[in-house]
Every structure is written in structure tokens, then in C-alpha cells.
Specification:
125 residues, alpha+beta, three-stranded antiparallel sheet, two-stranded antiparallel sheet, 4 helices
Length: 125
């Protein structure tokens, strides 16, 4: 698990200087944490899709974000699902049956076969 921590020295003095109300500080903190977490989720999805050589839409719901806005600390958790990917027309676009297996998005799934009724590829185990 990776962890990113940001420590801000003198934050109380800065808040006092601008005369910010506690509610404004909470909102600003929440906004900053949420924006940073969304950026991490997007870059994580992009890098995961590139390393698996699949379109980003296939990763879709496999990267989740949960904000944690507890009193002393604010943070976020970016979760990556590790279950096997389902190969379907909806996710990959076109599926083709070839002699060695099924091809989706230019990637060969050896030993897989396409079932037209479900629009998905399966592999015998």
C-alpha cells in the first residue's frame, strides 16, 4: 500500500491571517483532498489500463475512491480491484473467434471461445 502524506507547518497562523471560519477551512480541506484523490484515481486507471493493454473503459469500476473526512485528519483511499476481467463486446468492442482463441481489442485470449448469445468470450477450465 502506498501512502502520501502532506504536512503543513503554520497552517493555524495562515488561517488566522485570512480570518477564515472553521467551516470554510473544512470545505477547503475537503475540496483539496477530493481533487487530489480524483487525480490519483484517474492517473492510476490510466497506468493500469496501459500496463494491461486494455482500454480505460474496461477498468471502469475497478478503481474506486473513498474519501475519509475524519476530524483530525482528512484523507482518501483509492482502491484497485484485482478480479479477472470479463471479456465482452460491451467492454472491448468487437470480439472475433480465431483458431488459437478469441481476439478482443487486438489482444488474443488463447483457448477462449466467443458465445454470440451473450456477446462475451469464455475459456474452458
Amino acid at each position: 500500500m502506498s501512502r502520501i502524506e502532506v504536512r503543513v507547518q503554520g497552517l493555524d497562523a495562515l488561517i488566522a491571517r485570512f480570518g477564515a471560519a472553521p467551516q470554510q477551512v473544512r470545505r477547503a480541506t475537503r475540496s483539496a483532498v477530493a481533487r487530489t484523490a480524483r487525480g490519483l484515481r484517474a492517473s492510476g486507471r490510466r497506468e493500469l489500463a496501459a500496463s494491461l493493454q486494455v482500454p480505460q473503459r474496461v477498468i471502469g469500476d475497478r478503481v474506486r475512491l473513498r474519501l475519509q473526512m475524519d476530524a483530525p485528519q482528512a484523507g482518501a483511499v483509492v482502491w484497485f480491484g484485482l478480479e479477472p476481467l470479463t471479456v465482452s463486446r460491451k467492454r472491448f468492442g468487437s470480439l472475433r473467434q480465431t483458431r488459437p482463441g478469441a481476439v478482443a481489442a487486438g489482444r488474443l485470449f488463447a483457448g477462449a471461445f466467443v458465445v454470440e448469445k451473450f456477446g462475451a468470450a469464455f475459456r474452458r477450465v
